[in-house]
């Protein structure tokens, strides 16, 4: 019987098609399930059903407590960085002034020495060396035994024998950012949104979970629908009703509050590091085999 030479021969300098398939060569695709997608009625920070939801102008929805805590922590972090930057600038200014003062003292000493003979010299305290040869903040006071050890040791990596390199603190940005969209955001840019709860007898009897409907067409809101919120009153509609009625009549269907096209905000679906975005909910993993290696370069999974 003929042998399966192409599958049994393993001494080739290149990979066969069967070997590439077994190693997972190429792009692997998998459609994401429901658990990989953030529900539209969940907070983008805590990933739980939102409580007192607030929405930014880009359509990201957060719990009121979550977004306030996030913005407060950002402000505290900015204040801490500003204090560190101010302290560093003050220290640099003092060092410059001290350097100028010492330079003037050296010039006066050189002038006096030239005209009146030798005089006591001033020493820069920042470069003042002790008898062990160490200087600055890392200088140590050693006993007679330690002096001998320091004089004969060759451990140049010790902190006492190495110069310090202070980290440069850059001036931080003073504006808070949205934790989801990374755009600049302020508390006044957030507006509360209101979902219309389905209070029908059948829905209430079948499930204990809350379900929301469009106040115009009474369709149950899910992740498959595109949602639009009004930043004037906060009512949420499906996109079809918003384009058909609200955008044409320039008034809210629920509260009759006037609005304009710029007041329509598209509510984002999905949208965290643990959940997928958009309509093409497909995860891809691309594996490339390097020449002469069975491992090659592996690119992590991408969610689109």
UniProtKB/TrEMBL annotation:
Keyword Zinc-finger: yes
Ranges for domain RING-type: 214-256
Cell compartments where the protein resides: Nucleus
GO molecular function, one term: zinc ion binding
SUPFAM superfamilies: RING/U-box
GO CC terms in record: nucleus
A Pfam family recorded for this sequence: Rtf2
Swiss-Prot/TrEMBL keywords: Coiled coil, Metal-binding, Nucleus, Zinc, Zinc-finger
Residue stretches in coiled coil: 68-95
Family designation: Belongs to the NOSIP family.
PANTHER family registered for this protein in UniProt: ENOS INTERACTING PROTEIN (PTHR13063), NITRIC OXIDE SYNTHASE-INTERACTING PROTEIN (PTHR13063:SF10)
The protein's name: RING-type domain-containing protein
